[in-house]
Every structure is written in C-alpha cells, then in structure tokens.
Amino acid sequence: MSQGDSNPAAIPHAAEDIQGDDRWMSQHNRFVLDCKDKEPDVLFVGDSMVQLMQQYEIWRELFSPLHALNFGIGGDTTRHVLWRLKNGELENIKPKVIVVWVGTNNHENTAEEVAGGIEAIVQLINTRQPQAKIIVLIIYWQDEQGHHERENKIKLDYGNPTL
C-alpha cells in the first residue's frame, strides 16, 4: 500500500488547531515565507524530531553553514507533512538535499500505511524538486502509551527508485 484513498496516512490533511492558537498554521506560513526569502542547500522536513534538531549545537556547527532550513513541526504525521509540502513549502526553493523524518506520530496507522505515507512524501518531493537528493531517516516508533516496539516494523521498498 502506498497512496490514495485506501491509505489514510497518504491523504494530505492540515493539522487540527487543538490548542486554539493557530500555532500549526502560523509555523507553516513562516516556512512558506522562508521559501521566498532564503535559498537553502538542505531542507529538513518532518515532525518534532526535525524541529528539535535546531536546539543543539551540532545544528549550528554542521547544518547552518549549509544554508539549511528546518521545517519540523511537533506532532505532525505523514498527512500533515504532505499537506504542508503541497501548500507552499516546496515553492521558490531548489535545495540539493531534502531530509525527511516523519511517521512517529502516526499512532492510528499501521506500519504499512505509514510506509505508504512516507512513500507519498518522497514521490511528491521527486515531482516538485527533481534535482534534490532525498534522504529518509528511520523512524523511532512509539505508540500512544510510549511503547517502543511495534507488531510490524516499518519497511520501505529500497528497490523502489522513488525512495
């Protein structure tokens, strides 16, 4: 299973404004503005794992000199990242490398659905940013109770040229 109506993890959807402060949409809008104002060589996109990278010295030492942009939003699922990428976060930029790290928050999806959601993200990036090398980082999966093992581990088809 990869995309389409049969896979809920591969259907783009904006995050719900649970806190009522429009935080998620504000972050997305800031990322879209960054695409107009900056010329990144490297783009990181994903959930809190990506977002938190900026808090460490290694980001300033290794990634800032590469003109990297960090488009991570805590709590995002594959659906949210797909929506963001389809709604401006890949516009006006031509990064050489795009790093994708998402899926740990897809608690309601099976491993196969999450893999399909990630595949949909990679296919979208390939279509809109064909010059970019895409790196997909492994997911540190945990369920809502904090368990770190999953009945089915996520497997990507590395034989697929889109991955």
UniProtKB/TrEMBL annotation:
Catalytic activity, reaction form: a 1-O-alkyl-2-acetyl-sn-glycero-3-phosphocholine + H2O = a 1-O-alkyl-sn-glycero-3-phosphocholine + acetate + H(+); 1-O-hexadecyl-2-acetyl-sn-glycero-3-phosphoethanolamine + H2O = 1-O-hexadecyl-sn-glycero-3-phosphoethanolamine + acetate + H(+); 1-O-hexadecyl-2-acetyl-sn-glycero-3-phosphocholine + H2O = 1-O-hexadecyl-sn-glycero-3-phosphocholine + acetate + H(+); 1-O-hexadecyl-2-acetyl-sn-glycero-3-phosphate + H2O = 1-O-hexadecyl-sn-glycero-3-phosphate + acetate + H(+)
Function according to Swiss-Prot or TrEMBL: Alpha2 catalytic subunit of the cytosolic type I platelet-activating factor (PAF) acetylhydrolase (PAF-AH (I)) heterotetrameric enzyme that catalyzes the hydrolyze of the acetyl group at the sn-2 position of PAF and its analogs and modulates the action of PAF. The activity and substrate specificity of PAF-AH (I) are affected by its subunit composition. The alpha2/alpha2 homodimer (PAFAH1B2/PAFAH1B2 homodimer) hydrolyzes PAF and 1-O-alkyl-2-acetyl-sn-glycero-3-phosphorylethanolamine (AAGPE) more efficiently than 1-O-alkyl-2-acetyl-sn-glycero-3-phosphoric acid (AAGPA).
InterPro entries: SGNH_hydro, SGNH_hydro_sf
GO molecular function, one term: 1-alkyl-2-acetylglycerophosphocholine esterase activity
EC number: 3.1.1.47
Enzyme class name: hydrolase
Primary subcellular site in the record, as a coarse category: cytoplasm
All copies of domain SGNH hydrolase-type esterase, residue ranges: 44-147
Key words, A-Z: Cytoplasm, Hydrolase, Lipid degradation, Lipid metabolism
Subunit relationships: Forms a catalytic dimer which is either homodimer (alpha2/alpha2 homodimer) or heterodimer with PAFAH1B3 (alpha2/alpha1 heterodimer). Component of the cytosolic (PAF-AH (I)) heterotetrameric enzyme, which is composed of PAFAH1B1 (beta), PAFAH1B2 (alpha2) and PAFAH1B3 (alpha1) subunits. The catalytic activity of the enzyme resides in the alpha1 (PAFAH1B3) and alpha2 (PAFAH1B2) subunits, whereas the beta subunit (PAFAH1B1) has regulatory activity. Trimer formation is not essential for the catalytic activity.
Alphabetical list of Gene3D superfamilies matching this protein: SGNH hydrolase
Name the record gives this protein: Platelet-activating factor acetylhydrolase IB subunit alpha2
Compartmental location: Cytoplasm
Taxonomic source organism: Daubentonia madagascariensis (Aye-aye)
GO-annotated biological processes: lipid catabolic process
Pfam families hit by this protein: Lipase_GDSL_2
Keyword presence, Lipid metabolism: yes
Top-rank taxon, per record: Eukaryota
Family statement: Belongs to the 'GDSL' lipolytic enzyme family. Platelet-activating factor acetylhydrolase IB beta/gamma subunits subfamily.
Gene Ontology CC annotations of this record: cytoplasm
